[in-house]
Amino acid sequence: MDLTIWTYEGPPHVGAMRVATGMRDLHYVLHAPQGDTYADLLFTMIERRDHRPPVTYTTFQAQDLGGDTAGLVMTATRQAYERFRPQALLVGASCTAELIQDDPGNLASSLGLPVPVIPLELPAYQRKENWGAAETFYQIVRTLCLPHAPEPTWRRPPPEGRRPVCNLLGPTALGFRHRDDIQEVTLLLDRIGVDVGVVAPLGASPAEVAHLGNADFNVVLYPEVGRTAASWLKRTFKQPMVETVPIGVGATRDFVREVAEVAGLDVDEALKAVESRLPWYSRSVDSNYLTDKRVFIFGDATHAVAAARVASEEIGFKVVGLGTYNREFAREVRAAARKLDLEPLITDDYLEVEEAIQEAAPELVLGTQMERHIAKRLGTFCAVISAPVHVEDFPARYSPQMGPEGANVIFDTWVHPLMMGLEEHLLGMFQDDFEFGNDRSPSHMAAARPASSNGRSAPAETAAPGIQEAGSPAPTSPAPTSTSEDAPPPEDAPTSADAELRWDDEAQAELKKIPFFVRKKARRNTEAYAREQGVTEISVETLYEAKAHFGTR
Amino acid sequence: MSGSPVSTVDRSASGCRDLPVLKERGQREVFCGLTGIIWLHRKMQDAFFLIVGSRTCAHLMQSAAGVMIFAEPRFGTAIMEEKDLAGMADVHEELDRVVGRLLSRRPDIRTLFLVGSCPSEVIKLDLSKAAERLGGIHAPRVRVLSYSGSGIETTFTEGEDTCLTALVPELPEAPADEQALLVVGTMADVVEDQMRRVFDSLEIGPVRFFPPRRTDELPPVGPGTRILMAQPWVNETVAALGKRGATRIPAPYPFGVEGTLAWLTAAAGAWGVDPERVLEVTQRARERGTAALERYRTVLEGKRIFFFPDSQIEIPLARFLRRELGMRPVEVGTPFLHREHMEAELDLLPADEGLVLSEGQDVERQLDRAFQAEPDLTVCGLGLANPLEARGLATKWAIELVFTPIHGFDQAGDLAELFARPLRRRNLLEV
Q: Which CATH number fits domain B33-154: 3.90.226.10, 3.40.50.300, 3.40.50.1980, 3.30.2290.10?
């Protein structure tokens, strides 16, 4: 038993809902009490879906418990079939129904409906959302494709006289940028001469899923959801799996190489399709300031590993933390962390993540919506790279993460907050200049406004709300950790928690001259150095000695 | 005198008291009682709500609470795992450990609610026993109580009812000869303060609110306690208070100018205050409220409205919209209808031709009726709103009616605005 206020993943039946809601002409009967319908709003509100998820809840109540909850399953299933006429039915239980052991899958199968009934066993007290999605997709694929399976001795012939065809596996409803990734990867594949057969589960009907075996190979875009099914298809239909996830320029090139090899295409020719602005933008001299910026990365395994590669190899950041909440994919994250000389953080406790971020003192956090809020509290910049998602992760514009355009989107998304930080710093610097002083009116509006009017008097002040937002938690949202001492001290307040350490006035003034986004690091390094040297009063000398000791990194 | 067209309750219209109610049973598109924690923990600032449940409960709370979850909420979920259920770990020992750690980290907590969930109810985990045991361990600093917010027993706002019911035995005994007013059901602090000022002017008092803002300031209850319900969902609480001797003052709920006046007048009656005096004291507030409503009349008058069941607040709101803004209720759905506590409202709501009152839900059939009726505005939960919008129906999220201050004269305009905005917005958009 663990106390939780927020979880990265929902229960496994929510994973099943992501699969069912992504598909067409499929219906999910969920044996569940009143209240579990809350999950509908994830799809209608966060993703702004214009249809209800295709889920019928049996809605049993306390008074039913001694009686006929099994009857409710039968009735609900029969009515759902009559009303929605799906090509296939998923039937399963949520956490509460699992405890009453009605075996809804069997009950529904016994109704003799004229469509496949796919029973789902998703142990709610052991497993979580991503596993639930993967298992559901696997059960759907297995049930619907098995009737079309070839003899075990069958060999798949190479595509002759036609373009090779592949399936894209793994995208679901409520996925982080899945909608746009599919479009981008389909475009990329088309450019290298590969057609996409079926995209599943997102957008596919059961009839289409039944024919997944027709494609020459499978591309696993989201291993968290698609790998189990793709592995089964590989064994059963002899379909090779392309497992490189094309996030970032390097990974997109590797992906194209892998696809070309599997599809029997000219690799060099195919690689010409990867054209992204990221490499040049990264080499452009104005990007020099990005060098060795400290970034902390946390998310689902696929996006975290991909982000680590892009950050370190394509933008020139220094990765100071890497982790995932998804234990099933911890191995991949461990391997990536080892390459970067990092201790991987495998946890689903956001307080632990917050602690790690605080400890690593990054300048940019790449994470989920939770890390975005953690970063906000800590006064650090952040970009979202992974589910769990919020409504703002479904932008109106086209913004994939994968493929050449995905790399462009990533460059903009990650660099933008740092650029804004630089701008704030420059504005802050000008704030002290006499012509921009707080008691001055803008010259072109001098007559319109008295000199000492409110916040609009100097251009520098327009940055103030932004700084406040980035630098201090809103008064209504204190840290979710238990005590207020967990809240970070203001970054430029050189008062150390360590009582023995004191900054003299001159050193304090000097510290304020350092750009605010590196000030915290400078303070930390100086105090660490002072402690190491047994210095109790920090002077300007100590500050610069520490700088020489640690370098600017 | 008043200048207000709705200064007195008009009982001439034929009400809905005898209208047959369509009772339905089926899929319910509503929250469970756990969700009440979202406003209860804001109200009682020294209380912590510990749900003993599953990952689903935690996920529900973070989905329903939205960004509030990133602030420091005084609620959390103790997630039961396989080992707790399989008997590999003693659930009560585990609970003691979780609570011990929580309370040592949160010295500000004076009351801890152990909140039962669907899974804890199904495995028959005895939380009242656990509360007793933990209360013994952590007394006198922390009081430990338990109630159920499970979906198999409670619908959305009923979670407040079960919570308050659990608090009733804790209320101190009031002096037998003291007549005091107890306003029951959570209202926004700002509205409570407004109401208190009016009661003071009317020399009605002492006035206390339940739930209180701090659980170490519980209001006393006794035979002299007169209850005024501020929310229609505190039915069991009122019954429990009744067992302690309190009596209810029958009244409509304080929504809109008319409802608020009737509510105050009912209290005044119990204190022997002349209704004329109520009119006098409230005149300016009523005029403000009426003027505020007038602005929305052009948008709302004659518009047909359909309520999906959500919080039990539906009938009072339909009455307000029908009588003070001229809207036409088509169907008014409520998750649960307490005849006695809704009597005054049913009397006021005109039984217009074709009006359907429904209790409970079969969401598919109700959606069929909504599509058939083609209302101008549909009040529904967040899971239904966008799909209905996509089908061309304007919607109002029911949950806002629970989270926004809507009681009293000075909020009447805000309440009307909630219904008018979706319609005004539709008129604005050209694409």
A: 3.40.50.1980
